[in-house]
Amino acid sequence: METLSGGKGLLRPEGCQQSKKIIWRSTCAAALVIGSTASLPALAKKFESEDGQTFSIGAGFRSQFQSVEGDSDFTLPDIRVYTSGQLNDTVKFTFNLQQRSNDTADVLDAIAQFEFSPQFNIWAGRMLTPADRIEMSGPYYALSWNQYRQPLYASDQGGQAGLIGRDEGVTFWGTAGKFQYAAGSFIGLDGYSNQDDNPLYAARFAYNFLNMEANPGYYTSSTYYGGLGNIFTLALSLQSQEDGVGSEMSAGDFSGWTIDMLSETVLDAGGVVTIEGEYKSFDADYTLASQPVDGECFCLFDGESVFATAAYLFPANVGPGKFQPYLRLVENSPSDADSSSSTELGLNYVVNGHNTRLNLSFVSGDANASGYAGADVDVLSLGMQVQL
Predict the structure, then answer these.
(1) In Å, how far from its chain's centre is CA 39?
(2) Domains of the chain as residue ranges with CATH
(3) Is residue 235 packed enough to be buried (19+ CB in 10 Å), middle (13-18) or exposed (0-12)?
(4) N or C: which end of the chain has fewer CB within 10 A?
(5) What is d(CA 240, CA 5) in angstroms, rounded to the nearest whole number?
(6) CA 111, CA 203: separation in Å to the nearest integer?
């Protein structure tokens, strides 16, 4: 996932503590010098040589004004530079940077892309781990503005197992008819309970019952604003890592699975109805010893979570864009704590799909990305997103 406050990841500082991972990260960040985002914007500038080699460059900007219980703040949390290209029809690359709040730029993605056929491709480097739709769409290709109020997979939890949903590894992906798959192996949790360097395994399998979703690689979007016609897609995502939770003194295994659904219907009058939903189940194998008082524990959510979002895109333009109101409901039910929930009422003003949109939203509740209850607050946000 990619949160406004920096939820999806840059380089992991703890990675340089183990020599074999130094070699891997150096290879990814220096030798490959490539990466990927959920999609290069349609307006990205493309250059092409006489030999057919290409290079594209684009940028993304996302900011918001937010009021939490009357306490207001303006943030400029997400500025990105996207680059991609190809040496030939098989060997391709993308390299993306993100500016952090301390005015430093870090590698967001770095992927070598070997694309042999629609049925079979290999990506290696730093990339999104196969996961559920909201984590694969990120904030730029989401339906709602404040979507990260569910428990998130390990690479979205702040740095010990990747950041902003990214991790270093290899993914195999492709399509067969209307079936799409992605499966890979990643570093996952580095240190803490995982002293034996057990890998993280991740996979996503999707079936498009109606029109095919058009995305680069195995990434996703949570709405197409009717641009692809009628869509109904079901997907199953899975992740697991031995010793993936806990502390150095007491390790536990982690496994999680998700079923997500996207339905988009273009009505005769031109309006678009979008429904997105998800059920998520995490099993974090804790013992009491896994949670020491000194806080040295990589702790993940244990329990179940569901959400549903419904939106309607009005067919008529108002000025340069169209209005899209939506309602999003979230319920998190941990096995070891009280449940939490949130309700989001929002209004997108869509000027140019995911490349230009404004958002006004109101969220009420105590659900957040940890899956456990936080402060029960009301949040009013005004956001803007531009991609070039």
Answers:
(1) 12
(2) 13-387 (2.40.160.10)
(3) buried
(4) C
(5) 26
(6) 18
